[in-house]
Design goal:
Elements (H helix, E strand, L loop, with lengths): L9 E4 L2 E4 L3 H13 L4 E6 L1 H9 L1 H8 L2 E4 L2 H9 L10 H15 L2 E6 L2 H14 L4 E6 L8 H11 L3 E5 L4 H9 L7 E4 L3 H6 L7 H5 L3 H8 L4 H4 L1 H17 L1
Parallel strand pairs: 3-4, 3-8, 5-6, 5-7, 7-8
Antiparallel strand pairs: 1-2
């Protein structure tokens, strides 16, 4: 069944063009593009990604050309503070699972790249078991050297996956995909950060009550204290959004 075409909807948060589509609309939009043979680069952006883009013009350019979804409650709040219509989060791990469900229904090919060797292997096994009609056409851990990249690109290009999920950390994962975009033969390229760690079971996602309270970021910090430097982006993001809001009013 053909998915109804959806018009482009964008909210600008500190220079990053976020899609204002809800979760189900996003899945429908991406699915339609894949079915129509249109290539799509999805960036799942939270406040940390926004601040990275703000500090790096080259990365900002990459983000501006991608389909950016609001992976982070801070983005939803920032949209509310600035009167922009972002209604809900579109988290990377949930979007990955939803697209895998589409792959299961449509027998799409899927390639997984990134994370530690044991993590990616286990994630591939679990996804194959959960979505048996989706074709896992290949997977590779993220611990490769620059001289290995040509072989990896060729392997992905020959597999011609509809879905390419890359977990190399930001901004490297998006830089890598854009570098080889024209050769990868993938309909969808999407950076998925730590999603493979969650899918493999190596990292536990916050309990549902924490998610509903919008405290998933705090749960992750408590579970992984080494993330504290990265989490400093959150107060900097909030301050920058509010400062720009106040400046625009004055």
């Amino acid at each position: 069944m053909k998915v109804k075409t959806l018009t482009k909807q964008v909210a600008n948060i500190l220079g990053v063009p976020f899609s204002t589509r809800g979760f189900r609309e996003t899945v429908a939009y991406i699915t339609e593009r894949i079915e129509n043979g249109q290539k799509t680069h999805v960036v799942t952006a939270n406040p940390e990604i926004v601040m990275l883009a703000r500090a790096d013009r080259a990365f900002q350019s990459i983000v501006e050309q991608a389909h950016v979804v609001p992976d982070g409650i801070g983005i939803v709040y920032a949209a509310k503070w600035t009167n922009q219509p972002i209604r809900e989060r579109v988290t990377g791990v949930e979007l990955l699972e939803a697209l895998m469900a589409e792959a299961n229904e449509r027998q799409w090919g899927v390639y997984l790249l990134g994370a530690k060797p044991d993590v990616i292997s286990l994630a591939a096994q679990k996804l194959a078991a959960r979505y048996p009609n989706a074709r896992i056409v290949g997977y590779r851990d993220g611990y490769f050297r620059e001289e290995d990249e040509e072989r990896i690109v060729q392997e992905i290009a020959e597999a011609r996956p509809e879905l390419l999920f890359v977990a190399l950390g930001a901004p490297r994962q998006d830089q890598w995909m854009v570098k080889y975009r024209d050769r990868l033969n993938a309909s969808l390229m999407m950076g998925v950060g730590g999603s493979f760690d969650v899918i493999s079971g190596k990292v536990k996602r916050a309990p549902e009550i924490w998610q509903k309270l919008h405290l998933e970021w705090f749960y992750r910090l408590a579970s992984q204290p080494s993330r504290w430097k990265r989490q400093l982006a959150i107060p900097r993001f909030v301050w920058t959004v509010l400062k720009e809001k106040w400046s625009s009013r004055s």
